[in-house]
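step: validate -> pass
step: tokenize input -> pass
step: predict -> running
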Amino acid sequence: MAEWCREHGWYADRYGDGELIESFEAKVAALLGKPAAAFMVSGTMAQLIALRIWCERAGHFRVAMHPTAHLELHEERAYARLHHLDSILLGPRDRPTLALDLAACHERIAALLIELPAREIGGRVPAWDELATLAALARERGVKLHLDGARLWEAREFYAPKTLAEIAALFDSVYVSFYKGIGALAGAMLLGSQDFIGEARVWRRRQGGTLVQLHPLVASAAMRFDAQLAKMPAYRARALALGRALSAIDGLIVEPQPPQVNLFHLHLPAPAEAVAKARDQLAALEGAWLAQRIGEAQVPGWSTIEVYVGDNLLALDDATVVPLYVRLLERARAAA
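step: predict -> pass
step: emit ->
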């Protein structure tokens, strides 16, 4: 990373001011078709800031989000505890939020958060027409639409040939992550209008996110950005092929099938504890790590693992990978 910075003549920022961070913010803003962007140390911070701004502008503090939104499940409800926001969980858990869900909501909301893709339901995304209809209804009702784009880089492949800018144009504000599909050390970016990002920079400082140097995080994202974006079509193509191959294993269920992005869920007819035990055994015996996240499925006695197709699975063919999942299932059933 230091060598890359020297080669390109980049130097450390100071409290978010510097050529590298400013040029990277401008690059991502142009790619997403937004007037301005601000680098953030985390997506949690970025999204709380976005919702707080929209609520203050609306004059009330109620927002809406999907029942599996990251803010609801994985952030200790920071939106409520830190910013005193009230949330409506909109629509059913097992599919993305649609216009019909917003139409059925009769409460006044300042902003609606949409995650593309929705990780907790297997990386599902709404069809383009469904997304556009939702955006139009939000505008009609004066509801600001915020995009949780933690995996927007991956979601874009589902909507191709639509561009990232065309997707982002449906939203009033956008958050993207750099440590997930891009592989940076950490970091995120919040995008929107000039005045919105001006307010976001104030809130970043209030929340302790304007570090004396953001340079290491920014550099780790900028140096990998173009190369990782170029891999996204191959990641999705590999996910489609792997999804087909795994669905042929008796007892395994791929969801959704076919996968919509390079992320999908694999359901196994064994409890999570048994699957974890089988995973650890195979890791010790064969040096293969087949599941990071293992949870109990909604069907009793079943479990769910998340499959994310990145560089590792891109480098392995089905003849190598599929037998490992066959053995995982056999060992999990034996341990159940």
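step: describe -> Residues 2-223 form a domain with the Aspartate Aminotransferase; domain 2 fold (CATH 3.40.640.10).
step: cleanup -> pass
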